[in-house]
Design goal:
The chain is mainly α. The protein has a single domain, classed as Sufe protein. Chain: A. It is built from eight helices and two strands. The two termini are 25 Å apart. It holds the Pfam family SufE. InterPro entries: Fe-S_metab-assoc_dom (IPR003808). It comes from Sphingobium xenophagum. This is Cysteine desulfuration protein SufE.
Length: 135
């Protein structure tokens, strides 16, 4: 979580425009998601922008997510969400309080409701995925 804490620290000192830029930069830094994985099955429902999340299982059983969006700021939000769960064991992901981890970013008050309405759906999909792997 140290990376998330570093991002949060930087975010706190930025004005609104620079916060948007930071989110866009986070989204650009996401590992590329192959177009072949952007299917109806990986589409997150309830987002105003198209958002895809695809889980992969690492050799040691930890989950690694690929994600993308057709909207730059939304892609940055996904990058923030993934910072809280990426490359962790499924049980840790299922138990993670992603909302609490993201609370300091105050996204609901920083961004339009259109941009934030899908966040709970992204988190729910990630938790459901982790739950399938916890057996």
């Amino acid at each position: 979580m140290t990376i998330l804490a570093d991002i949060q620290e930087e975010y706190q000192f930025l004005d609104a425009d620079d916060r948007y830029r930071l989110l866009i930069d986070l989204g650009r830094a996401l590992e590329p998601m192959p177009d072949a994985l952007k299917t109806d099955a990986t589409l997150v429902r309830g987002c105003s922008a198209a958002v895809w999340v695809y889980p992969t299982v690492l050799d040691d059983g930890r989950l690694h997510f690929l994600a993308d969006s057709n909207a730059a700021i939304t892609k940055g939000i996904i990058a923030l969400v993934l910072q809280t769960v990426q490359d962790q064991p499924p049980a840790a992901i299922a138990a993670a309080d992603v909302e609490e981890a993201l609370a300091p970013f105050d996204l609901r008050n920083q961004l339009s409701s259109n941009r934030t309405q899908g966040i709970p759906n992204m988190i729910a999909l990630i938790r459901q995925t982790a739950g399938r792997y916890t057996g």
